[in-house]
Amino acid sequence: MDTFTALAEPTRRNILEMLAANGNLAATDIYKKFKASPPAISQHLKVLREAKLVRVEKRAQQRIYYINPEPLHDLEKWVRQFAAYWEERYQALDKILELEKTKDSVPPA
Amino acid sequence: MANKTVVTAEPGKQELFITREFDAPRELVFKAHTDPELYEKWVGPHGMKMTIDKWEMYDGGSYSYTHERDGHKYAFFGVTHEVHAPERIVGTFEFDGLPERGHVILGVTSFEELPDGRSRVVHQSVFRSVADRDGMVRSGMEGGVSDGYEKLDQLVAKLQEPNTASA
User: Fold this and answer.
1) Do A82 and B9 make contact, defined as CB atoms within 8 angstroms?
2) Which of B17, B20, B99, B145 has the fewest CB atoms within 10 Å, i.e. is most exposed?
3) Domain coordinates in residue numbering, chain A
4) Which residues on B lie below 8 Å from A75 (Cβ)?
5) Quick one: DSSP state of residue A1?
6) CA-based nearest residue to B67, from B160, B126, B161, B151
7) Looking at the domain covering A3-68, what would its CATH class be?
8) Separation between Cα atoms, residue B40 and residue B48, nearest integer Å
9) Residue B35: CB partners within 8 Å, gap ≥ 6?
10) pLDDT tens, B80-96?
11) pLDDT given for residue B48 in this prediction
């Protein structure tokens, strides 16, 4: 599953926000913060792991989750490139507007 | 030039915003979005020939145009829901080359007046799903960013000829 799809679900975004605020959290602590059942949350964690948005370390009996920001940087990159695509169009529009302004400023005969 | 295109696409949302300021009054920027001769000069991606087939810029009208490169045609079409000079254009947008119909986008373009003869354009695109939006963002970047500003120079050169002839 890709970054965009993984982020499309509000519970998963909540989990990421919690991890961003806390640095890391044990799976059991994440479960406690939601009304949904632990298996449901566990499923969301699996999606986040597969999208590489989080990584997990096993410590004794606990599974500790960390946020992995790299896929988020990819998302930023996509948005930046899309902006560059529009910037190219709009720079063409800038030129046209300059020409049109000159035309408009010619007083009517 | 300090004007910069800003794209806002929050994760998990079905919309995106494209914002840009122009050193021109909004009436003129609006005109460049509705006059077919002006529109086809700037909206086509680099290296593509833009042809407008239908252009009804009034409430309830419709439009279609084609981008063409190396014999490949990319057709786009939609209906114009509202054309309110010089403030707002509301319409639909669909790419004719997808495997299935229905991936339609609602577009709202707002033209805001700024001091000193300047203006701001805010374009909101509302997609049917998050996946539709993200697919568009990813395909939109292909081909758009790499080739620099050659097209701009060609376009300006082309534009100056008919202008001097008709002035």
Assistant:
1) yes
2) B99
3) 3-68, 69-109
4) 11
5) -
6) B151
7) mainly alpha
8) 11
9) none
10) 999 999 999 999 999 88
11) 82
Strand partners, B95: B76
CATH number at residue B59: 3.30.530.20
Please give the Cα distance from A77 to B7 (Å, whole number). Answer: 11
Q: Which domain holds residue B160?
A: 6-166
Average the pLDDT over B8-26 and give the result. Answer: 88
Dihedral sign, CA of B21, B59, B78, B52? negative
Is the Cβ–Cβ distance between B50 and B63 less than 8 Å? no
> Between A and B, how many CB-CB pairs are < 8 A?
119
Total domains in the fold of chain B:
1
Three-state SS sequence of chain B = CCCCCEEECCCCCCEEEEEEEECCCHHHHHHHHHCHHHHHHHCCCCCCEEEEEEECCCCCEEEEEEEEECCEEEEEEEEEEEEECCCEEEEEEEECCCCCCCCCEEEEEEEEEECCCEEEEEEEEECCCHHHHHHHHHHHHCCCCCCCCHHHHHHHHHHHHHHHHHC
Q: Is residue B1 part of a domain?
A: no
- In A42-81, the residues whose Cβ lies within 8 Å of chain B are 75, 78-81
How much is the average pLDDT of B118-124? 94
